[in-house]
Amino acid sequence: MGTPTPSEDAAILDLTTDELLSTTRTVRRRLDLERPVARELISECLELALQAPSGGNRQDWRFVVVTDEDRRRRLGEIYRRGWDRYVEEGILAPPSRPTDPEKRAQARRIGKSAQYLADHLGEVPVLLVPCHEGRFEGRPSMVQASLYGSVLPAVWSFMLAARSRGLGTAWTTIHLFYEEAAAEVLDIPYDKVTQVAMIPVAHTLGTDFRPGARGDMDVAVRWEGWEGAS
User: Fold this and answer.
1) CB 153 within 8 A of CB 53
2) Alpha-carbon 91 to chain mean position
3) CA distances from 6 to 38, 153, 174 (A)
4) What is the DSSP letter of 228?
5) What is the pTM of this model?
6) Going by C-beta distance under 8 Å and a sequence separation of 6 or more, which residues neighbour residue 152?
7) pLDDT tens for each residue of 11-67
8) Which of 4, 50, 132, 138 has its CB surrounded by the most CB atoms within 10 Å?
9) What local confidence, expressed as pLDDT, does residue 214 receive?
10) What pLDDT score was predicted for residue 2?
11) Is-contact 90 212, C-beta < 8 A?
């Protein structure tokens, strides 16, 4: 299988490799909920995704592409239920509010953006549910890391391919609070297949994305060991 020929529905954006890597953002509010996404575009992105490495080259990934309006609506309802639980229980919330005004403002923007997606997920033209064969519960951490690591590179490749074609994506996992309910909507055999995420996919409102604000590399990177010099 060679590199897919870009669909006429969307030209490849003129991005360098570094620009592509640094501007593939989590897109929520700028997803175009009205414009359909051609099946050919999704197929092109998936063809590239399938070139990603997987553990032992097993290629046990599976991708469920959802465009049916009723199924998207039902998945949106499941996601919203998960979002409400996420907010109510304060899951993954920081132990304290950031003291820096700029970081507080950024946190508010992200919160509003995430709320918008929760309110509109079922309206996004395409929902992609990446899966892996088998269930992971109770398995050793090495096994879980290997299994997730065998599908996540392919999903990231999909998201990069989508960005290059003017499509926006967002990595979401909130529906996994109710994974079994989502499996029922999608006819996924819950006892045999693990859902990894749900990726909304749509054309973006504009393509002028910029690199995101990130912390200092000196804080994130340690050389030679955890206590090593940054």
Assistant:
1) yes
2) 19
3) 12, 21, 32
4) S
5) 0.90
6) 196
7) 899 999 999 999 999 999 999 999 999 999 999 999 999 999 999 999 999 999 999
8) 132
9) 87
10) 54
11) no
Q: Indicate the length of the chain as a whole number.
A: 230
Is the pLDDT score of 166 beyond 70? yes
How many angstroms separate the CA atoms of 117 and 83, rounded?
10
**Whose CA is closest to 22, among 213, 219, 226, 224?**
213
Per-residue buried b or exposed e for 4-40, using 16+ beta carbons within 10 Å of the residue's own CB: eeebebbeeeebeeebeeebbbebbebbbeeeebbee
What type of residue is 202? A
Contacts of 82 (CB under 8 A, 6+ apart): 174, 175, 176, 177, 178
Residue with tokens 């909304």: 200
Q: Are 80 and 118 in contact (CB under 8 A)?
A: yes
Going 99 to 103 to 106 to 107, the CA torsion angle's sign is negative
- Rg of the Cα atoms in the chain: 18
Measured CA to CA, the distance from residue 160 to residue 95 in angstroms comes to 33
Mean pLDDT computed over 141-169: 96
State which H helix or E strand residue 63 sits in: strand 61-66
User: Which residues neighbour 55 within 8 Å (Cβ) at sequence distance 6 or greater?
Assistant: 146, 147, 149, 150
Look-up of token digits 């064969």: 133
Ordered by where they begin, the domains of the chain are: 19-220 (3.40.109.10)
